[in-house]
Write a structure and sequence with these properties.
Elements: E1 22-27, E2 39-45, E3 50-55, E4 61-65, H1 71-83, E5 88-92, H2 97-106, E6 110-112, E7 115-119, E8 125-129, E9 139-143, H3 149-161, E10 169-174, H4 193-201, E11 212-217, E12 232-237, H5 240-248, E13 258-260, H6 263-269, E14 278-286, E15 289-296, E16 299-301
Parallel strand pairs: 5-6, 5-9, 9-10, 10-11, 11-12, 13-14
Antiparallel strand pairs: 1-2, 2-3, 3-4, 7-8, 14-15, 15-16
């Protein structure tokens, strides 16, 4: 009896198979020692899946290889993202209630959430975040108002707590950075409280989605952006474009002069307002008195 030679190795078909093209490979069958029936393997390229049809004298054997990302699932995910836009749960301080309600009316994607602001008998805050379990996996924002030192601590307590409630992302909106005017030392012993507040905000816990984003408008000095640490993402916006739009709507928009309270304000904003006539108020100390000089062009007027 003659020995049966082993079958030749099956060559791996090329992955680049044009549509409507079939590659056929004949393989000798050893189901019988005397009768050799070939198997015919065809690789069919279709828009949604790869199919290998193995045809013999008996019933065909079908092996279906699905692509990593099926077309149906991709289209379903796309439809889901269109039907379910990004929603934001907006918390707010008690002073910002009216503004938060106005913001919510501008978009259906913003959902207002409430906080119970109470105090113990000794004056320290007694706070409660309503429906804390309901914000898990949600995008959360807090609209703050640091209008006085007395309200900063209670709001910081909430700001530190929200990112740790397993939220997808956390954004702090602080329209006005209150300590911005105290950003440098002029004499030894001066305390730059702007740097102090920036360090406090830089320690906001990281949420599930990453560092906290802080949005503030028209910070007093541009160098203050470097006061924040690497644990947060500060975003500095400006209201000057809105001011320009409002000025252009005035009936006497061609008769407007912009006055800056000091040289610092002029350095900060004059490039955005350079098409308007400008005057700069300079404060000069003479003993206990302060004299304001108004500079218009190269002329100084007392």
């Amino acid at each position: 009896m003659s020995a049966v030679s082993p079958p030749p190795p099956l060559q791996r078909p090329s992955t680049k198979i044009p549509s409507k093209t079939h590659n056929a490979i004949s393989i000798p069958s050893h189901s019988s020692r005397h009768n050799k029936t070939p198997f015919k393997c065809e690789f069919t390229n279709s828009p949604q899946k790869w199919t290998i049809d193995c045809v013999s004298s008996g019933d065909p054997i079908h092996i279906i290889l699905k692509p990593p990302f099926p077309m149906a699932s991709s289209s379903a995910g796309l439809d889901s993202s269109i039907k379910n836009p990004k929603r934001i749960c907006l918390f707010y301080s008690s002073e910002m209630r009216d503004l938060a309600e106005r913001i919510a009316t501008e978009s259906d994607a913003i959902e207002l959430r409430s906080i119970t602001w109470r105090k113990f008998e000794d004056g320290f805050p007694n706070l409660f975040i309503s429906n804390a379990h309901g914000i898990r996996g949600q995008h959360v924002a807090f609209l703050a108002s640091f209008s006085s030192p007395g309200v900063i601590f209670e709001q910081l307590s909430v700001i530190y707590a929200l990112p740790k409630l397993f939220v997808s992302s956390f954004t702090l909106v602080l329209p006005f950075f209150p300590t911005g005017t105290s950003e440098r030392m002029e004499d030894e012993g001066d305390v730059a409280t702007a740097f102090t507040l920036a360090r406090i905000l830089s320690n906001i816990p990281i949420s599930r989605g990453g560092p906290t984003s802080i949005v503030t408008f028209d910070i007093h000095a541009l160098q203050e952006r470097f006061y924040f640490g690497d644990n947060i993402l500060p975003c500095f916006e400006s209201g000057i474009p809105m001011l320009l739009n409002r000025l252009q709507q005035l009936p006497d928009s061609d008769n407007i002069t912009v006055a800056f309270p000091d040289d610092g304000a002029w350095k900060r904003f004059h490039k955005q307002l350079q098409h308007f006539p400008m005057v700069v108020c300079a404060k000069v100390r003479e003993g206990d008195q302060r004299i304001v000089r108004i500079k218009e062009g190269d002329d100084v007027m007392l």
